[in-house]
Specification:
Blueprint: H1 2-36, H2 40-47, H3 49-75, H4 79-105, H5 107-112, H6 118-131, H7 135-149, H8 155-177, H9 187-211, H10 231-259, H11 264-301, H12 306-330, H13 334-337, H14 342-375, H15 379-403, H16 409-417, H17 419-437
């Protein structure tokens, strides 16, 4: 058991650190612009919604590759990982390119999906027109890093993300505010800094894959002689994951568009909680990735699953407890981070305290659904569990409580996020059901 915990932590911690660095690098634009303009955080958040949708689909493609690669790695068939990686590098960045074109041609329309205030739309367009230029680089880095995780290679991505973060933070400081003789570019400066940082990170990731990962011996000539004998299995695995990520993220963005019709204090409270909720998810993300990888390795190798699943569930419970404490603590720090009125702070604090109830279940749900079940290859159930709840419950109930009731905003927030609690119980039931039936490798299908 101790060795299992050590293995989980060994994979989880570098991924969590890398995810935290990458997240802060993404959000540092919003934080610095928030100092420049009180509505900078909100405007950037709206502009970034299209990135979150794009990254959700790309992460789905990468996750599909990771599921297959983990089982191949568990079985020792590392050369088949090259083929899976090639598929993912064609599809993920290809989708990112389409989103980039949409942002370049119709930036106001894209931002206007979520933002209703003309001033927020204008600020969001200033940011998005430049920021969207890094989407393809992000997709390439994500696909490669996710695939290498299946080989338990997690430290390289952490180092490269740190380099990107330092570049992004320094250039933000220079270009947003005009320090060190640089031009004061504000929103455009924040976006340009992010583009440069992401391009550097992508170059490092690609060079590392080509020259340092000896287990794969990946060559770019693989694309010229690519066979599609594994493509059917890849598609059956990736499409449900990608569709789930896209439809869930888009549904979540629909909820944000409902919130955008409320007063600015409620918009600020919702955006601020989402920001720190995503910080909490960074630690969950590391644990989820470790769970998915180790589950795939164990299934591919034919190991016993019950001890592994019990350990993973304990990690999920511990992270939930940590996140509850973190959200409670941050609720007192928000006034120190942002210059807000007492009225704003009252709304923010009530939302954060309501969020503690959600956090008590969220990590445990994610561990079951995105870690254990997805790592087992049960992607169809994961798709249904995510999509049905977001579109048949969360979206309609959010619209109803926000616009057809006079409930306090923190109560509305609980309704909006309640699917996180319900999905925990459905995922628990599914794991017990699969364990009774027996879980087989999807690479044999």
């Amino acid at each position: 058991m101790k060795n299992m915990r050590k293995e989980i932590i060994g994979i989880m911690v570098p991924i969590a650190i890398q995810s935290l660095i990458a997240f802060v690098a993404t959000q540092i634009d919003s934080l610095m612009l928030g100092k420049l303009d009180p509505n900078g955080l909100t405007a950037c958040n709206y502009a970034n919604q299209v990135f979150f949708i794009m990254s959700g689909v790309v992460s789905g493609v990468a996750a599909g590759a990771n599921i297959l690669s983990s089982q191949y790695y568990g079985r020792g068939e590392t050369q088949k990982i090259n083929t899976v990686l090639s598929y993912a590098l064609l599809i993920g960045p290809g989708f990112a390119l389409l989103i980039t074109l949409a942002c370049q041609l119709f930036p106001a329309t894209v931002v206007g999906i979520w933002a209703k205030d003309p001033g927020l739309v204008a600020s969001g367009v200033r940011y998005l027109r430049i920021a969207s230029l890094y989407f393809v680089a992000y997709a390439i880095s994500t696909v490669i890093n996710q695939t290498l995780r299946s080989l338990h290679n997690t430290k390289d991505a952490m180092k490269f993300s740190f380099v990107a973060f330092v570049i992004n933070a320094f250039l933000n400081w220079c270009l947003i505010f005009g320090n060190l003789g640089m031009p004061r570019m504000e929103y455009e400066g924040a976006a340009l800094a992010t583009v440069i940082a992401r391009l550097v990170e992508c170059a490092l990731v690609v060079l590392n894959l080509r020259f340092n990962i000896r287990e794969l011996q990946f060559r770019f000539t693989n694309f010229l002689k690519l066979k599609f004998d594994q493509f059917g299995t890849f598609i059956k695995t990736s499409i449900p994951v990608s569709a789930s990520e896209f439809l869930w993220t888009f549904g979540d963005s629909m909820v944000l568009s409902f919130v955008a019709g409320l007063s600015l204090d409620k918009q600020f409270a919702y955006s601020t909680y989402n920001l720190f909720g995503q910080v909490c998810f960074v630690f969950m993300g590391g644990a989820i990735s470790a769970a998915s990888i180790l589950t795939g390795n164990a299934i591919g190798n034919g190991d016993e699953l019950d001890p592994l699943f019990k350990s993973l569930k304990k990690f999920g419970l511990a992270i939930s407890a940590f996140n509850v404490c973190a959200i409670f603590s941050v609720s007192f720090l928000v006034p120190l981070l942002y210059e807000i009125t007492p009225e704003y702070n009252a709304v923010v604090r009530s939302v954060f305290w309501a969020g503690m109830i959600i956090e008590a279940f969220r990590a445990r749900m994610c561990m079951d659904l995105s870690g254990i079940l997805r790592g087992s290859g049960d992607v169809k159930f994961c798709f249904l569990n995510d999509v049905l709840f977001i579109w048949l419950w969360t979206v309609p109930i959010s619209w109803f409580v926000l616009y057809k009731t006079n409930l306090p905003f923190w109560v509305c927030f609980l309704f909006i996020k309640s699917d996180q609690i319900i999905k925990y119980f459905t995922s628990e039931w599914r794991i017990k059901y699969l364990m009774k039936r027996g879980i087989k490798p999807i690479i044999d299908e």
